[in-house]
Amino acid sequence: QVQFVESGGGFVQPGGSLRLSCVASGSISSFYAMGWYRQAPGEQRELIAGTGQRTNYVDSVKGRFTISRDNAKNSLFLQMDNLKPEDTAVYYCNALPLQPWGQGTQVTVSS
To answer: What is the pLDDT along the chain (111 residues), one digit of tens a residue?
Structure first.
């Protein structure tokens, strides 16, 4: 198992951008698929972006978020542009098979 540490969250106004990073405690090369999840208050955690054979996004973030990975740095990234208030959530990364969840990073979008 590997541990993930997410960072890069913060407070941003609508229309702004953030770049999230996720660093693993070990190699991620063996993980065919990795993804970014988010959990808004009172809601279930949901997968919003995944990378494997190809990248996939939920409709709510398609065209605004971009997932990428750097196996050499054991890292996963999420570039988030044109942020909206409904993007407010705690963001997590993980792999398949699922590993222990990290602490996540809070993203708050508000004017």
So the answer is: 899 999 999 999 999 999 999 999 999 998 999 999 999 999 999 999 999 889 999 999 999 999 999 999 999 999 999 999 999 999 999 999 999 999 999 999 999
Token code pair at residue 22: 């996720």
Bridge partners (DSSP) of residue 49 are: 36, 57
> In whole angstroms, what is the distance from residue 38 CA to residue 44 CA?
8
**Rounded to an integer, what distance in angstroms lies between the CA atom of residue 106 and that of residue 36?**
13
> SS3 helix, strand, coil % of the chain, rounded to 5?
5, 50, 45
The tokens for 49 are 């972006």
What is the Cα–Cα distance from 16 to 27, expressed in whole angstroms? 32
Tokens matching residue 41: 């208050």
CB 48 within 8 A of CB 104: no
